Amino acid sequence: MIINKILNVDDYYYDVFMAISGTLTGFSANELQSTGLAETYYKHILGQIETATFLEFLNVSKSILENSFSQDQLRNAIQSEIMADPGMQDMSNNIITMWYLGTWEGTYVNELSYKESLVWNVMHAHPPGAKQPGFKSWAVQPVNSNS
């Protein structure tokens, strides 16, 4: 799998972070970028844990991404090389939680992280008190509604 540049960010590991984030969350790199939080999350992780720990995770991720040529290979490699290692699994769980809920170890990353959490897209909802759905939105039947 090829890791492409997403932005003009010179940090090579940023590209790996975005690629593995997309794989772990099931969202494309563009969808993750559209939250406006990609660089913020990357820098937040660098400020929260030892750089060497994060780089080890990113190097393992890079190897997995480069050596997986199908989705099955990718899933199996993540399972055996990341999820089987408690430290790597904790890191991946924190990254998934950060994207989906906007938190790192139980604390919101910033004021935007709640509003732009991926959970709202998954639920086809809006974050209460932060982003309103729009005028007359109550007249539109909810997605997957049986009524």
Instruction: Choose one word for the global shape.
Output: globular
Largest sheet: 2 strands, antiparallel
Strands, total number? 2
Strand content: under 5%
The count of domains is: 1
Q: Indicate the radius of gyration in whole angstroms.
A: 17 Å
Terminal Cα separation, in Å? 43 Å
Helix fraction, binned, reads: 55-70%
* Helix run count: 8
Secondary structure class reads mainly alpha
Overall pLDDT: 87
Unreliable segments of 5+ consecutive residues = 1-9
- The main sheet orders its strands as 1-2
Question: How would you describe this protein?
Answer:
With 147 residues, the protein is mainly α. The chain has one domain. Helices cover 59% and strands 3% of the residues. The protein contains eight helices and two strands. It has helices at residues 12-25, 29-33, 38-48, 51-67, 71-83, 86-101, 111-115, 118-123; strands spanning 103-104, 107-108. It has a two-stranded antiparallel ribbon. A hairpin with a 2-residue loop joins β1 (103-104) and β2. The longest helix is centred in the middle third of the chain and has 17 residues, at 51-67. The chain is globular. The model is unreliable at 1-9 (pLDDT under 50).
